[in-house]
Design a protein that fits this description.
single chain; about 210 residues; alpha/beta; TIM Barrel; 8-stranded parallel β-sheet; 10 helices; 8 strands; about 40% helix
Length: about 210
């Protein structure tokens, strides 16, 4: 367990502040790239986020081959370095290693967190997706820097068999794992984000709400 995780676990009584959360802006929005929705490459999206003052971006890609995603991520990293942006790679520990990304976000079926931590080291940010209270409780024991819970509301951005957690489910997770940064994801927009934060999320992951339709 890294030093940041150790400090986090000593503070089970409140919503915490960590280096991960400190990278987000005052709105605590965690932007995630989407080529199909935005109509832009990952590098172009990072450049757009840089213009908005963003300092942390997750690259998510479900459609390109490994080689294509590697090349996209490599270009995005160049843009990120020029603009002081930290890059988190969704799912792909191999690509995160190859492009020397600042972190990785793992799902339930990805490489185990312990293995990813061993490969990436103590200073790399690792986030982990959960979809239920039971999964969140298990994840809180892992060497992660933040925990994602969702979908909070139904969403068309990502195909999933997981049921919506809802605000009550989010609040239950917050109560069960109070000592870890909690990122809410799924169907969150300007109309409901205040309610999501009030229910206990430290930050809100955003995809479709970032790009005008």
């Amino acid at each position: 367990m890294n030093d940041q995780s150790a400090k986090r676990l000593k503070r089970p009584d409140a919503i915490v502040t960590t280096a991960f959360l400190d990278l987000l802006d005052a709105s605590r929005t965690y932007p995630i790239t989407d080529r199909l929705l935005s109509g832009r490459s990952h590098a172009e999206q990072v450049a757009e986020f840089a213009d908005r003052g963003v300092k942390l971006v997750q690259l998510r890609e479900k459609n390109l081959s490994s080689g294509e995603f590697y090349r996209e991520a490599e270009q995005a990293m160049l843009v990120a370095h020029r603009n002081g942006i930290k890059i988190i790679i969704n799912d792909r520990v191999d690509i995160a290693l190859a492009v020397n990304a600042d972190g990785v976000h793992l799902g339930q079926d990805d490489l185990p967190v312990e293995a990813a931590r061993h490969l990436l080291g103590a200073d790399v940010v690792i986030g982990f997706s959960t979809h239920s209270l039971a999964q969140a409780r298990e994840a809180a024991r892992l060497p992660i820097d933040y925990l994602a819970i969702g979908p909070i509301f139904p969403t068309s951005t990502k195909k999933s068999s997981n049921s919506a957690v809802g605000l009550a489910g989010l609040a239950a997770v917050r109560q069960a794992v109070p000592g870890i940064p909690l990122v809410a994801i799924g169907g969150i927009d300007a109309a409901n984000r205040a309610a999501v934060i009030a229910a206990g999320a430290d930050a809100v992951a955003a995809i479709s709400d970032l790009w005008p339709r």
